[in-house]
Design a protein that fits this description.
The radius of gyration is 23 Å and the shape is elongated. The protein starts with a strand and ends in a 9-residue tail after the last helix. The strands form 3 sheets. Strands 6-7-8-3-9-10 form a 6-stranded mixed sheet, sandwiched between helices. The protein contains 10 helices and 14 strands. It is of the alpha/beta class. The protein folds into 2 domains: 3-217, Rossmann fold, CATH 3.40.50.300; 229-292, Alpha-Beta Plaits (2-Layer Sandwich), CATH 3.30.70.100. Bound molecules: adenosine-5'-diphosphate (ADP) and magnesium ion. Residues 43-44, 84, 160-161 line the site of magnesium ion.
Length: 312
């Protein structure tokens, strides 16, 4: 399997602040890869370094087989980039934006005509070609922006927070569109702060404070962290149980999910200790089971405190 991206010790500092802290990773060609993390984690800065839009303070990066520092033009020919900030011209119509980007990417007339229809089709903009871009709902604008970013059939596509601010229906449509691009053979790198979107990715890199804290496929990551001491307490009085477990200092995390209370119990004999606490506090009916950690649980675990919490 050949590599679309290879980054080694990639670092970006702004003055004395380190936004991206010596990250190393490889991305296989043809994959849908998610950079996931809270605002400020360093996702956009990483993407910009990969695209050659910002110069790393140190480290190396190869994109589509080309060194980003030495062959930025070759890199640019092979990538499409949709920025987190609105990348279209809001005073231009839909048609004008597509034509503008067609010009930027040097598309010939025939190719532009083909791609024009394609964008209108995938972005669901038939009949709206003459509308000003600023008058489109955000979801449509985002799909148009994606269409414009891939007019030239790039091998690698970078989408920075494409689903930020759109409702779940639009978000799902957007992911369908990503799936379609992927089927056509492109490597797709998407950033998002919505953890639930991790499930749509074949491979995920979770970022926290400029570092990659988790890297792998969703199944692989869940397998790797299956031993996290997570327990589920089924109860008819979740709020009461939550308040009880919150008082135990060996329970570092507790959360209510419907009728269940999830706890993170990093201690010896966690099951017995939990039973004990339930009994001691007079909880009448409950059932404790070992829980399989969700990606969210794993992310929380890996970012707790300094972000270096150990597992297993
Ligand atoms: N041009 C800049 N100058 C100074 N700090 C910056 C600049 N760009 C980003 N940062 C800081 O770097 C950190 C990472 O930002 P960013 O890469 O945008 O994170 P994300 O995309 O994950 O939200 C943030 O703390 C942000 O404030
Ligand atoms: Mg960002």
């Amino acid at each position: 399997m050949s590599l679309a991206i290879k980054a080694k010790n990639l670092t970006k500092k702004f003055g004395s602040f380190t936004a991206v802290d010596s990250v190393s990773f490889e991305i296989e060609e043809g994959k849908v890869v998610g950079f996931i993390g809270a605002n400020g984690a360093g996702k956009s800065t990483t993407i910009k370094m990969l695209c050659g839009l910002t110069t790393p303070t140190s480290g190396e990066v190869t994109v589509a087989g080309f060194d980003v520092a030495r062959q930025p033009e070759r890199v640019r020919e092979n990538i499409g980039y949709m920025s987190q900030k609105f990348s279209l011209y809001s005073d231009l119509t839909v048609k004008e934006n597509i034509e503008f980007y067609g010009g930027v990417y040097g598309l010939g007339n025939t190719e532009l005509r083909d791609r024009f229809s394609w964008v209108i089709e995938v972005a669901d903009l038939r009949g709206k070609e003459g509308l000003l871009t600023r008058d489109l709902p955000l979801g449509w604008r985002q799909r148009l922006a994606l269409g414009c970013a891939v007019l030239h059939h790039p091998r690698i596509v970078f989408l920075d927070e494409p689903t930020s601010g759109v409702d779940p229906v639009v978000r799902d449509k957007f992911w369908q569109l990503i799936g379609q691009l992927s089927e056509e053979g492109a490597t797709i790198i998407v950033t998002t702060h919505h953890l639930e979107e991790a499930e749509f990715c074949e491979s995920i890199l979770m970022m926290h404070l400029g570092k990659i804290v988790v890297n792998g496929s969703p199944e692989g990551i869940r397998r790797e962290y299956s031993n996290l001491p997570l327990f589920e307490i089924e109860t008819s009085e979740p709020l009461n149980v939550f308040n009880i477990v919150e008082r135990e200092e060996w329970i570092s995390d507790a959360a209510i999910y419907g009728d269940n209370v999830h706890v993170y119990a990093e201690t010896t004999e966690p099951m017995a200790k939990l039973e004990d606490v339930m009994k001691k506090n007079g909880v009448a009916k409950y059932r404790i089971v070992k829980a399989s950690p969700t990606l969210e649980d794993i992310f929380v675990n890996r970012t707790r405190g300094t972000g270096t919490a150990s597992h297993v």
